[in-house]
Specification:
Structural class: mainly alpha
Radius of gyration: 17 Å
CATH topology of the largest domain: AhpD-like
Shape: elongated
Number of domains: 2
Helix content: 55-70%
CATH class of the largest domain: Mainly Alpha
Number of helices: 7
Order of helices and strands: HHHHHHH
CATH architecture of the largest domain: Up-down Bundle
């Protein structure tokens, strides 16, 4: 694991339940995600994160995976979360999505690599992540026409969650962990240098 501002809780100090979660994570992802191991310092936050991430993942079924995952990925690049870019690339690859086009995400407005729906979602991620946010009524109307109300709520929630994850990871100094070493995407967010 990379050096973070707050060290990860090692398995020897994670307690028996923490060790079980670590073991499951290693089997599922190949390693313990560093945000889990750092969050283990606060057992309540650790469990809240695991439960909420599982619940949001299970509930997010309205949007096509490519639309949702590209919006989440774009958010990570805009915030400058190296860990989120690394982990998100791995998840997209495991879901069978085209990760090669991630190297061209900055070209999304005109690139033929992205569908019209994907462009809408990526643009929405940019607008929600901007400081201050730049979301417009017209943009929300267009998204609702494309995805329906449930899809719009799902997209908004997923982008908001990724903003939270990315900002927490960035603040704690959690960087790329090597889940998808092939990903060489340039971070475009203001905090990209961390």
């Amino acid at each position: 694991m990379a050096l973070t501002r707050i060290p990860a809780v090692p398995p020897s100090e994670a307690g028996w339940v923490g060790r079980l979660v670590y073991r499951y994570a290693r089997r599922r992802f190949g390693d313990v995600p560093e945000p889990f191991a750092v969050a283990r310092h606060h057992k309540g936050v650790f469990w809240a994160g695991l439960v909420s991430e599982t619940a949001y993942d299970k509930a997010s079924t309205v949007l096509p995976k490519s639309v949702r995952e590209l919006a989440v990925y774009r958010t990570a690049t805009q915030v400058g979360c190296q860990w989120c870019v690394d982990f998100g690339t791995m998840l997209q690859r495991l879901d069978g999505l085209d990760v090669d086009r991630l190297q061209h995400i900055d070209e999304y407005p005109t690139s033929p690599l992205y569908s019209a729906d994907e462009r809408l979602a990526i643009g929405y991620a940019d607008a929600m992540t901007a400081q201050p946010p730049t979301v417009t009524d017209a943009q929300v109307d267009e998204l609702e026409r494309a995805f329906g109300r449930a899809g719009l709520v799902e997209l908004t929630t997923q982008i908001g969650l990724e903003n939270m994850r990315a900002r927490v990871n960035h603040a704690l100094g959690i960087t790329g962990q090597g889940f998808d070493a092939a990903c060489q995407v340039r971070l475009s967010g203001a905090g990209a240098g961390s």
